[in-house]
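Revision sheet: structure tokens.
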Amino acid sequence: MTDPIGPSTSTIPNPSPTTLLHPRREPFEHGLLPMQKLIFTDPLQALTSLKQKLVSSSIQRVDSAALADALQISLDHARLVLDTLASVLHSESDPLVTSRFDDVDSVGADLLDLILFLYIQSYKRLLPRLHKDAAAVADVWPSTSAFDGYLSALSPLQVDEEAHQLSYLQKHLANILSLLSEPVEGEGEESLVISMEGFEHLGFLIQFEDKGSDGDFLSQAAPIFANSDPDMPAVPVPASQVLGWLLQNIASSLEHVTEKNPAKENGPPSGSDQDVVKASPSVRSPCFIEGVSKSSYVKQASDLKNSSLKVINCHDSVIYILAPLRYATIYGCSDATIVLGAVGKAVRVEHCERVHVIIAAKRVCIANCRECVFFLGVNHRPLIVGDNHKLQVAPYNTYYSRLEEHMTEVGIEATINRWDDTLELGMIDPHNSLSHPAGVSDAQAESATRLDPDHFTKFLIPNWLEGESTGSTKDNPFPLTDPCLTSQQKNQNNLGEIKQILREAPLEENLKRELSCALHVYFRDWLYASGNIRQLYCLQSD
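Predicted:
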């Protein structure tokens, strides 16, 4: 049976007027994989057949081998699917989320969660509106790529992502409920029913949020199941009634989004606006750091009440985010150094140029970046997709006093660092609504090279940035490779020898003063020439 269900005309009580339905951003922002074999021409038919095949095999949790066989993909790609699903699941208690790195295959994914994950691979991201001051960012992306005519002037903050995701759910909800439903004897629209357990799987895609509180259990927000006797199994509900009630709520939520966020025709802040921080009212929504230019910027754990962060359109700056996070996105930045504290779910770095990114995270995805260097402490293989050029990877190279505390809080293991075990997928992202150049649909993304160990240096975060917040971390918790350790020791020895030579130089006091003054002058000139002088001014004023 592959026909979508239709909404019932039966009357179902409306939720409280303070209750709003929201899409979960995480699957749409961090759960899409550019793999053609995950995208189906008719997802309802294909996934119904997949579900029936796995159910007939008595499979309730799907491991890499079963998934690879069912979708005809490699074991590496099947493992990537499970890892990515684990990073965006709504239930923190699911065994796939709580399992250790080596146990993912034996644990496997819940069948219905996997079906929903595969279904949304048909989602296409909304094309952002043009940046109001396109000329101000035109120099970020020289026109040498087929994408640059669009990407140089895009600002993802100017799109109504929530409305776009709600519209997608509105269009596909009948199919999604069909996949979560079970047939019963009968005819017509009442022949498909959905259980409370099946309804809870919708938590992967949607969430209800009351003013002042977050709704964690969908069935408690829905009047269809809310009054069920906790001591008795809930009676399955006709899927058509569930569809009608959800469509009603999506329509109300879309209306609310439109009223709350009127058409953003005025564009983003102008190029002269700096240090733009937008904290979302809900902890479920990300905090935005946008438009930092020619400056330095610091955020501590106490400054961030949200579990997700987006750093967008920041240029020629140094940004320190010394906090534990669940998700992070770095988008459209150039000529910057960005330090992210511990990120427990996933990081996505997209459309960046000449950026040094220092990340401690479980997972990282790099898309459409150029001439960037990534200093990584990651538990899973870094994923590289899209049109990338001259990327370099290196081991994690910094620390701050609360780093290990934050890593423990979000579940990052310092003993596992797969910084150089990159996995490359296709150049073209099928989830992008931009037109795609002909002839490159199956091309593999350009891989990253290892940074020359002679160029590996420790990045020092001034301890006074942390104020009164002190922790136990005294050094980089991730082990370094032998070549990097050798290079680091060589640099330290060279510095020590230079200091000793200067101390022991047979110079009269007036010549020593002249030498000291000359060194200060050269150092000051370097600070100005490199732009690092701004760090001293900006950070001292924070």
